[in-house]
Write a structure and sequence with these properties.
six-stranded parallel β-sheet; 60% helix; alpha/beta; Rossmann fold; 2 domains
């Protein structure tokens, strides 16, 4: 006959399954803009269930008196959860869309750091590790350390607070290989030493080696990666943070942590591969090469100056257009112009024009950056088109409006074999009858690569703050 303790254990298992299902369903709903909020909510509910269940599982046979709570440390856990929730809510609420990529980078880093700390805590609380536990703890520390320091570097690059200039490490791949091998030796020493815990013991030395080497490896691996690859590296670091959580779940035998970690790890890796494909890049070259910061010979050789146009003249062209495509980039986020763009799109539709938005996977500083911005402005999801969907229609498009984008519309990717972008699928804005480029100045994009689109015969530049420019165009329609 099943006793009460067995029933509680069964109930806890069911709660873990419910949490896992909510995670899976939540990620599924995040795939579409109109269901993303619901997906985020379901995932949050699943996390609450998982956290409460983990805490309850450890003391299913005891009554939860105040003394038990204080003695077992639950009060500190509850206080930490409350403080963390308040900080997270305020931070997420106040962050500007231009700061969202670096916030996501830090979240990835915090995920890796938490897994690392879980592994270190498990080490401190165990007499000695069996080989399997030792290997999983070591891998948790290794991957979590890379995710943490790598994400901090990505945050510094995106925010402009660290590593503003490109960094080159002589013999980077050799150094990284030595660090990785030394860390693996550390894992081996810990997993197979059989020593008790203590400073000076072989197991302790192994843990110290793997922690130190992989913290450094996260730094050296990411610091040399150029700005053009930042959206991809954020996806990869997200995958690392999930993978670290999965290994942590194996180490502490927690099934829901394994499930959630695997979900984050695999979805992050899939997104990384999608982003690499969108840039015609190999994951190998991303990790062991560099990108950006160099110009093509074609871009350097053209002495032609871009042609500028006033808002009033641009309005006359838009007023006669029957099809318009907006191509947003990070400049739209900087100017916070998404709501003004939505107003202009509405005016164009009222004027009889067909309006679409061409979204490149690596536009912005993180995956889906432009989709989030436009969803915030209530742009209909069906108007958001991929490059594959829009490129066949581009030759019949009257006006393509490029807002702060650079690399994702650079024709060098198509016709200049000397360009670092060559072979990267782009949005073929240059094929439109007229191209408006909204930029603050004549500088290059985040990768530092010149864009010959700006000097094409069918391209005109509208310099200034994108939000003010688009708002002025809206005013022209209102005054007409």
């Amino acid at each position: 006959m099943t006793n009460f303790t067995d029933l509680i254990s069964i109930f806890i298992t069911i709660l873990y399954m419910v949490a896992s299902v909510l995670f899976i369903r939540g990620i599924k709903l995040l795939g579409k803009a109109d269901t993303a909020r619901k997906g985020n909510l379901l995932s949050s509910v699943g996390m609450i269930i998982a956290v409460v269940t983990v805490l309850a599982e450890k003391e299913v046979r005891d009554s939860f008196t105040l003394t038990d709570v204080l003695h077992n440390g639950y009060l500190y856990v509850i206080v930490a959860v409350i403080i963390g929730s308040i900080i997270g809510a305020i931070w997420a609420k106040k962050v500007e869309m231009t700061g969202m990529p670096q916030l996501v980078a830090l979240f990835n880093g915090f995920g890796g750091l938490s897994s690392l700390l879980v592994a270190l805590t498990q080490y401190l609380n165990s007499d000695h590790a069996e080989p399997f536990e030792g290997i999983t703890l070591g891998l948790t520390i290794a991957i979590g350390a890379i995710a943490f320091t790598g994400s901090v570097v990505a945050w510094g690059k995106l925010s402009g607070k660290m590593f503003k200039k490109s960094v080159s490490i002589p013999g980077k791949n050799v150094i990284n290989a030595i660090l990785a091998l030394a860390g693996l030796v550390g894992i081996f020493l810990y997993a197979f030493s059989g020593d008790a815990i203590g400073v000076g013991e072989i197991g302790f030395i192994g843990i110290a080696i793997v922690t130190a080497t992989y913290l450094i490896l996260g730094l050296t691996m990411v610091v040399t990666i150029g700005g053009g690859d930042m959206p991809v590296i954020i996806s990869l670091l997200n995958a690392f943070s999930g993978l670290a959580a999965a290994f942590a779940g194996l180490a502490i035998t927690n099934s829901v942590l394994v499930v959630s970690g695997c979900l984050v790890g695999t979805s992050g890796l899939i997104l990384t591969l999608i982003m690499c494909k969108a840039m015609n890049r190999k994951l190998y070259s991303l990790l062991f090469g560099t990108f950006g910061g160099s110009s093509s010979k074609k871009g350097e050789g053209s002495g032609k100056e871009p042609v500028a146009m006033s808002v009033e003249d641009a309005y006359l062209i838009l007023e006669a257009a029957s099809s318009v495509v907006f191509i947003p980039g990070y400049g739209m986020a900087v100017a916070q112009a998404q709501h003004a763009v939505k107003e202009l799109a509405d005016k164009l539709e009222e004027n009889g024009a067909e309006v679409n938005f061409a979204i490149h996977p690596v536009a912005g500083r993180m995956p889906g950056h432009m989709n989030v911005l436009l969803a915030e402005a209530n742009v209909p999801y069906e108007q958001l088109k991929t490059a594959d969907e829009m490129n066949p229609q581009m030759p019949n498009t009257d006006v393509a409006i490029v807002i702060g984008a650079n690399d994702v519309v650079n024709p060098s990717a198509v016709d200049d074999e000397t360009s670092p972008l060559y072979g990267m699928p782009i949005i073929n804005a240059f094929e439109a009858r007229t191209v408006f480029v909204l930029k603050r100045g004549k500088g290059t994009g985040f990768s530092g690569i010149e864009n010959p689109l700006f000097t094409n015969d069918n391209t005109v530049m509208i310099y200034g703050d994108a939000k003010q420019t688009v708002s002025s165009l809206v005013s022209e329609f209102d005054d007409a």
